[in-house]
Fold:
Amino acid sequence: MGEHQRYAYRITEATTGQTVQGRDLFTGAGQPVDPDRALRDLAGYLSAAGESRQYVLDNPGHTSEHEGVFPDWLAEAARGNADALALLAQDPPTEPDRPAELTASDEPGPAPRRWISVVFLQGDEADEALDLIDRHGTDAAIEHLAGYDYGEETVDAALENGYVYDTVPTGATDRIATRDVYTLTYNHSFGYVGLLREYDALPDPALLGIDIPTPAHPGPTAPRRTSPGSDAWDWFAPPPGPTGTNPVQGRGPSL
Structure:
């Protein structure tokens, strides 16, 4: 627990010259020596002696808990200087609050990650992805299911339907695989597979090997070609509008 430090003190009555000496003040265990703290403690004990003296005077024939701790003349002096002792016993005022300097541990950490659902397939619809996992591994399945990711459309759909998660939703027997910003969850026993993407991140097509992604399904929401006759797909391109109209403005890879 650490050592206690002992203080010696002397109290003198200026008029009569009477003195009291003691060595019964101690620091807390392991606390540094602080004479100002000891003086405030001593003032507190003297205040208690003065209050005891006042109690005895107000209640003749009764005794007080702190009676006899100090000589009667000192208790009387403490009673007559109660206000001064109360001020002396107070802790010193602290400096006004000011912004603390940030340390490395105080600096804000990274924002918590969230995930959005890109696609969830079950039953017959999940068989192709589950077979792909068995034949070629989870990376191949992630690359395949990434074809369901349409950038802002996927984010908007997830927000609208509540498919945004603070943690990756999984069951007790699910298996998980991660690649780039995607997390794959799948379960052969129950026949389902799902793909999630980090909410505020975009995939790296080069890392995933999907520079020319294959659409997961045909239709108006499939990835668009970058230009007529091109074999490359623009994953986050706006959908084509009627002839003579401009494409939707403000759509693109930024979230």
User: Anything to note?
Assistant: Residues 212-255 have pLDDT under 50 and may be disordered.
